[in-house]
Amino acid sequence: xxxxxxxxxxxxxxxxxxxxxxxxxxxxxxxxxxxxxxxxxxxxxxxxxxxxxxxxxxxxxxxxxxxxxxxxxxxxxxxxxxxxxxxxxxxxxxxxxxxxxxxxxxxxxxxxxxxxxxxxxxxxxxxxxxxxxxxxxxxxxxxxxxxxxxxxxxxxxxxxxxxxxxxxxxxxxxxxxxxxxxxxxxxxxxxxxxxxxxxxxxxxxxxxxxxxxxxxxxxxxxxxxxxxxxxxxxxxxxxxxxxxxxxxxxxxx
Length: 253
Ligand code: ADP
Ligand code: ADP
Ligand code: ZN
Hints:
By secondary structure, the chain is of the alpha/beta class. Helix content is 44%, strand content 15%. It is built from 9 helices and 10 strands. The strands form 3 sheets. It has a 5-stranded parallel β-sheet with strand order 2-3-1-4-8, with helices on both faces. Strands 6-5-7 form a 3-stranded antiparallel β-sheet. Strands 9-10 form a two-stranded antiparallel sheet. α2 packs across α3. The longest helix has 22 residues, at 204-225. It is globular, with a radius of gyration of 19 Å. It binds adenosine-5'-diphosphate (2 copies) and zinc ion.
């Protein structure tokens, strides 16, 4: 199953994706991390990414789509993945649909989009206090999710940093870009029936609890649509792959 996170910057998409990745055994694909790796390269593409990211703007769709498609084509993402920060535009959302239809025909139609909602005030506060470990990717917040030792990662002991695009001006710009470019995809997914809304303003544990319940509800809805005979039903263009026989059969997500 593909799990897609949509939400404002700082809503907790990365935090929840990392937790789900451990719980569900799916790879965590973070668009921002992939683009930061590109930006770090001294190449024309790296310079382009840097120019947009340092201004709080979205990296152009053609570049971002290509990078995500390459990552989704890796063997570990064959049966599903957690997409954190992609898509962020309607063009990206449509490209992802086409990519699922082309490469993941068995799981196409089974994705779930988690709309992690949090107000502008909450996400600006979360971004302001965000500290990250560049070595293992762990994310902290001072004071909400503080490390045991000040300035040091609990997981690997490396020093913690704040991102270079985490100034108040760039944070405000990123939120503005979210409202203008990303919010329209919420309606797009709502119309497709794949959207589940999650209250991202709760504490980390309760957000995870609601996400797991939403995933279960989506799986149950897909199973209810699926007749217990082969051949599918009219209007259902794709379905999970089935393992086993008779009553013991179960879908593989
Ligand atoms: P946040 O969740 O705080 O917005 P990310 O690490 O997800 O931060 O993204 C950092 C930056 O990377 C964005 O401001 C943007 O420049 C770029 N970026 C991330 N995802 C995308 C995307 N899907 N399309 C274009 N640019 C992106
Ligand atoms: P996103 O990936 O959506 O930009 P992050 O997962 O990086 O968001 O979270 C932004 C900041 O808020 C981080 O410092 C993180 O530790 C903190 N955070 C995430 N979820 C919560 C939560 N539910 N309550 C309080 N702080 C949170
Ligand atoms: Zn670490």
